[in-house]
UniProtKB/TrEMBL annotation, chains A, B, C, D, E, F:
<dbReference type="GO" id="GO:0016787">
    <property type="term" value="F:hydrolase activity"/>
</dbReference>
<dbReference type="InterPro" id="IPR003607">
    <property type="entry name" value="HD/PDEase_dom"/>
</dbReference>
<dbReference type="Pfam" id="PF01966">
    <property type="entry name" value="HD"/>
</dbReference>
<keyword id="KW-0378">Hydrolase</keyword>
<protein>
    <submittedName>
        <fullName>3'-5' exoribonuclease</fullName>
        <ecNumber>3.1.-.-</ecNumber>
    </submittedName>
</protein>
<dbReference type="InterPro" id="IPR050798">
    <property type="entry name" value="YhaM_exoribonuc/phosphodiest"/>
</dbReference>
<dbReference type="InterPro" id="IPR006674">
    <property type="entry name" value="HD_domain"/>
</dbReference>
<feature type="domain" description="HD/PDEase">
    <location>
        <begin position="157"/>
        <end position="293"/>
    </location>
</feature>
Length: 318, 318, 318, 318, 318, 318
């Protein structure tokens, strides 16, 4: 079975794919006829596809995020590869295919990522900080297994958020060793909490964000996480006036660094400065790595990357 | 007894004044002698003053924010009026003077402002919104009687914050009548809550802010008030997921309108848009009125006003 | 007769509508055939429509801004409702329909808006200010009956400009009562004059701006209104050096507040500061109200609104 | 008689100088004594000076912008050259000195500059444009003989404004020859009118601006000049709707290029684009030339120049 | 033979044109058929064209940047003129047509432009500066005959870069005469060198830039030219520490004036300030002239011009 | 001998200190007398000091950056600690004190820093990259032993530049292990080269920058380092068109990330993105650490730090 990124013009093929997007359109004819404008994907990439003469029954059968078995023909349309779907049916239980095989995903298993995060959480020596972090993680624990870190910006795939946390924890560990003036408890807590409300800010399935939630739009994940810390402290009988609560809320509130990037206050503790830079470093380098990975090996330049001053990245070969 | 703004060069006078600032300095002579560099004020304004040859006893007797009886001489120094203090003693109980007579203050009595705010609070028809507002007001009720609304920006005087709220409530009432699509409960609540955490963000005495609190610097009054709403809901058994909690937090979080002005989200409800404009209108017009009031009647231009694009205001006379 | 916003898929209908836009296009066939791509509207909204096989005669008969009687079929095209026009003829005198019934319009009759504006103008106590205002209003009086306040930004409908003025005058009245240091003559004059040149800056018909005039592009309504005040003063023998002329020109020139928003000077009188904030408050709240009104009741979010930091507004329901 | 820029430490000298600034100050002693803190200048530069023990009579005798005969001693104070004034008296009629010998001035005589400007004005072939230009020049003709072009920014000296105009006219002539698509009438008129209201925007004496006028602050020279064109057209019976009036107002209004630099509209005619660049080129190059001229020959770097991105200019020697 | 800009609807014509762009598309039919979407151009302008039913042979015959003989029909499509190609064949040697007759080109012959540039270069009196300039010109001499100055911004046509240099040299000559404090050697060298690396920064053919080179993207023409000066000095045994090398590199590095426009340092010598303003003046005025030239004479407004604050230019007629 | 940061009011002391700044001033008396306004420092901090009645011989004896033996008295002046110098003489050879004991310095010995840098350089596997890096390091090797990384921004002390490099190399090592898609040769080379021209951009002694060099101002360290790479390649017979030269120049040119921060191009390779974030992380965290170290332990807040959005850092204690 051919992966999406291995198809070439004039290939006829049969395989299983994910319908990532599906729109019913009509031909320009008189009378117009319905057809499907589809995006087919697997874990290697995605392609445009047409399914002509969609019947009423077809319209009740095929939906976005459904797995399908496709007989198709790859051809060039306006100089880009496109698929003409000849036959298509929904995948059935007996087909032995699973949605998660067809989506882009962090390179480490979610269960291992969660394990690493919990290890870090368990290693926080201050019990009150550990309790607050655990309370907040508990609110989204199930979603942490699969949520992306953002809609498109970075780590926008299955378990991307947990992957972002786990890698930041590694950088944080390194920095605490290199610079002992940093407080490891605060830095670990800040890394785990900084984006902890993202699963409630965004609506996502299979690592793909379809929209922001109402709460996400009206409050944003930064203010939400800050309120969760308040809630955690009250529920756990931790003094709201404690410097620990203050320190954790400051880490969360300031981690975007500037007001125009969404932070109502700027970093003013050593760990808050560190957190912002660890976050930026991991996000930007992951953007670069992901862009290079999903750009065909023979192309020198990736597409433009919004988070990198809208520049493309060059595949430097020495 | 002459008011500060009535003194003229060569006036000899006796009166009670407030020591707003006091610094011990030393003359350039060899050996240098100590003297006091003082700012004397009353409710009409303030002036620089010198108290030469300060003794060790004087240094234990006179402090900022103390009332004193002064025998002095007004004279010009570098073209500006200055006071030479000939004799000075702390005001005593029998003098019948009170600190509050000597400071700048809102033009309406604090007790009346608080009454107006409580009236508005009581007129909120939704009991949960009313409860949340009352809880938050309760946290700072005593300070509301005297806190300014800002360090220097606007309403920077005794009870300035309550005055700001009360006047905004008047504008809000007018707008709800003019535009019935606005929800009066939300708008009143938003007006009362938007700056409710300022008394904990700033350290003030007698209407004068000396500094921001640690919490004020690390969290800011916007995130603090948002967390107070969470706290109020939990303590009052109101569902944290209620649209009322969401609506109130959105009002508080968005009222500065832009990220670079400190709001992590932008106004996205009708009442949030209204709140921002009511806040701006009241603050800016009060800046203008206060600047004109404290500029001598015979001067055409006020000093530059930072909040008005750093422009001076012209006293237009037709 | 069904209103546009009541049509549902598969409705067959007959009714009168306005052709808001009409473009002659050609099918992709060989040879291509002409058809009309039309936007039909009434006061409740607008919809895309196709009129296939447009004849040469049709092309001489149907034009934008014409009223037509339509027999049509509503259907979904690319998931959005669209009209297929089966038959169509121009409305005739005997049909008893009038253009103004088919366009979006201020919620108050133009004649009442003009009356309110003239009342305000008549209440200006200073005769020279009143004369200048009257002269400028006189230049565009006829257009004030129907001009919008902007192309798309706000109050973009029939008599939108007069509606904007009338509502601002209400806010101005309130503020002058709340803050007696404001000069009512100047504030009323400022409100009436601030956008008075817009009818010459823009080319509009039935409340719809098709373009800016050459003068509008090269001078802008702010500089135009400022020159009109000069003209008014000369024609009425009012001293050009009078502080009244200066005060009025300052109000007009500064009302956009910042250079990047088109004001060559910033507000530097109390009334100029007030004018800017009244203008902003009325424009922004009207954007919100209009967006909510024209968004179907069952949708939570309005479209993005450029003038509100490009945010959508949430229909908060408590 | 020594020029200011020729004085060296320990020089004793007698000469005539201009009191550019004079402030009465008091020594720190007890009792303090009055002395004068003075800035003495001639056409070569300026220096700080002290006049100790100023008597009551002295305070009635010496004022800023007065010529004085000085017996003085140059010495170093805090590593900078300063003058101790030993004796001083006002210059008398018989002294044969004239204020204009003591101030910085354009390198060409005002009468010649005015002649060049009038020549250019006379060479405008369109009679209506010529009439409007002449009317506006007529309003400030006397002041054109001596006004600077700005307070400090550029050409800030005697007849600086006329010098700026005359040099811009030379560049304009060159450009019209190099690029015949430019209309010389419009370009000449634009050059002469663009800053024509500056003499009413600023209050200046002897080429030194002391302040902006009320009109200058509230309207700005750009809007003032635009209104003058309206006035000129009305007084000369030129149709206000003429493209000539429009073209001239556009030139004036747009010459600062951007809103944040004070232009309510951006250049949209060929001549308006040319005018902006001629203005910028002449102003910036004159800043450079003047900074190099007034920096001692042996210093490599001029002071920082605000109009040149706040950079210093290096005296490159090859 | 009709020029592109003379064609009118319903004209049938035969002539030679350049295929500026060619894309193979497919009709919406089932099965879809291939056709060519073409842009035809000559030196007077360009138009869209369709070539229906493109055969396999056609797809091997016709390519962008090829000259063709066309029999066609002009008609209106969506209100814009379009060409239906009836017959088409590649131009043959015997046709006597040459590519360079069909492209937009500087109004002066390349050979004359190069001559002017070399004259200026030869007139540099300092032998080391002259040597460095000659070395850098030598690196791109062949490309200078035809390269444009930019992709779309300005002088985007055959020999546009040489034309830009030649015209700037004229302005430079004028300025050196008007302001003798400028060093003509440095200014000439700066003009010739400022964009000298553009032919290596961009990939162009026939005056049309298809892309930036890898080096162009990763280094930019400013840093490239700066390194070329280093290279020139080393190869010519000129001291790298010489003020001449420093002065030339400063001219190149600073000529975009601001960091956000690509200059790592700001102009800090007289000639660098001059160079920036000469560059801006020539580029902007050429944009205006070219926009007016390529806009049909009967249209009042050019398209929007990105480099002119995205404004259109008005064809002012007096 | 007391360290500067251990002195308390009324301490009389004798010790060796560095004269960091010395200005000859004059008392306000008549006649004025010369005195020295001095900044005394050692490795623990610095204090203001006065040396009254400076004789002509004193003025020839004491200079900035000289070591002196001081007998002094610490006292409060305007609420800050100040030193009155009673006696003072230059340190002599026999005193056994050395300049380097009195200045602020990186916490690791320069020789060890240089060793670490050379180790990293030696571990570059590509011989051409290694050669280029070695050539550039060779140009400033002696200065690398003591130069600071900036004038005030960060690492502004003895060997600060080498310390910055060495710590960045550690982060780079960690990142290359965490993310194997990064090329270690390029990243090491980028870290060593990115600020390599700073010793020629700035004029420094003992870790203190007194000014920028002429070359530093006119070219900046970024363009200088880029040219050094050109020079290194030419001198070492490495092809200028090699991707290695291109990659190294891109790293240097882009490391400030944005044009407004001095980079003419933005990072467009993986290693360039990494380099920018390593640089920012090390610089910002060092600012925080240094600010906390030099703020007395009992103060909660450091001074404002320009490079951290001008915020102070809070000494969080849990």
């Amino acid at each position: 079975m051919k992966q999406i990124n291995q198809l070439a013009p004039q290939d006829e093929f049969i395989g299983f794919y994910l319908i990532r997007e599906l729109t019913v359109k009509q031909t320009n004819g008189n009378p117009p006829k319905d057809y499907f404008d589809i995006v087919l994907s697997d874990s290697s990439g995605q392609l445009s596809a047409k399914y002509w003469d969609a019947s009423a029954a077809d319209k009740e059968t095929f939906f976005p995020m459904g797995l399908v078995k496709v007989q198709g023909l790859a051809h060039l349309y306006r100089e880009r590869l496109q698929i003409k779907i000849i036959k298509m049916r929904p995948a059935a239980d007996g087909d032995g295919v699973s949605l998660t095989d067809f989506i882009r995903s962090a390179p480490i298993r979610p269960v291992d990522l969660i394990y690493a995060i919990k290890q870090a959480m368990g290693s926080i020596s201050d019990p009150e900080i550990r309790t607050i972090v655990a309370y907040c993680v508990g609110k989204v624990e199930e979603k942490l297994m699969h949520y992306p870190a953002a809609k498109t910006h970075h780590h926008a795939y299955f378990a991307g958020l947990a992957y972002h946390m786990a890698r930041m924890l590694e950088i944080g560990d390194f920095l605490c060793k290199q610079r002992p003036f940093l407080n490891p408890d605060l830095l670990k807590a800040g890394i785990i909490l900084h984006d902890i409300a993202k699963p409630e800010e965004m609506i996502a399935e299979l690592g793909i964000v379809s929209d922001y939630s109402v709460q996400g739009k009206l409050l944003g994940h930064i203010a939400m996480a800050s309120s969760w810390i308040t809630e955690a402290a009250i529920r756990s009988n931790i003094d709201l006036a404690s410097p620990k609560v203050l320190g954790l809320q400051h880490l969360v509130l300031s981690h975007h660094n500037l007001g125009e990037w969404g932070s109502p206050v700027q970093p003013q503790t050593a760990e808050a400065v560190a957190l912002h830079h660890i976050d930026a470093m991991d996000a930007k380098l992951q953007m670069v790595e992901d862009a290079l990975d999903t750009t065909p090996e023979n192309e020198e330049w990736t597409p433009f990357i919004r988070g990198l001053e809208n520049k493309a990245v060059y595949r430097m070969k020495l």
